[in-house]
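Structure (tokenized):
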């Protein structure tokens, strides 16, 4: 009964909330989100920086130079070293400016070189 003494009509009254079902849905959504974020982080085989590529190139070049049977690894290692160096030139870099005697880190400006960089390297922070 409402305050006028009339029974509530079924068309305007809200449905009661099933808290158990809502909690189950929320937990399932969190589980899925955690699984996909873990999968996204694990399944991406790209390196996160040019330094990793250059370290792999250095290791291959040294192995190819020291082990007589795999001289092809020397060529691949030198190629990876060159690729890592060139791609480090494309790496997005922010600027630090001073405003009211406080340093402020500005994000890098969007450029085509950043798009090329993110084709080969994964982002450290999701955007």
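Design, position by position:
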């Amino acid at each position: 009964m409402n305050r006028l003494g009339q029974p509530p009509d079924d068309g305007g009254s809200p449905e009661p909330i099933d808290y158990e079902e809502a909690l189950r849905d929320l937990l399932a959504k969190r589980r899925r989100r955690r699984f996909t974020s873990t999968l996204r982080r694990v399944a991406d085989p790209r390196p996160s920086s040019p330094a990793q590529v250059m370290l792999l190139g250095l290791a291959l070049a040294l192995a190819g130079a020291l082990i007589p049977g795999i001289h092809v690894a020397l060529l691949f290692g030198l190629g990876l070293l060159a690729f890592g160096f060139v791609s480090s030139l494309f790496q997005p870099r922010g600027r630090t400016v001073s405003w009211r005697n406080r340093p402020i880190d500005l994000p890098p400006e969007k450029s085509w070189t950043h798009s090329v960089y993110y084709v080969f390297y994964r982002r450290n922070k999701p955007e």
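Reviewer-requested clarification: Strands lie at 95-99, 102-106. Residues 50-120 form one domain.
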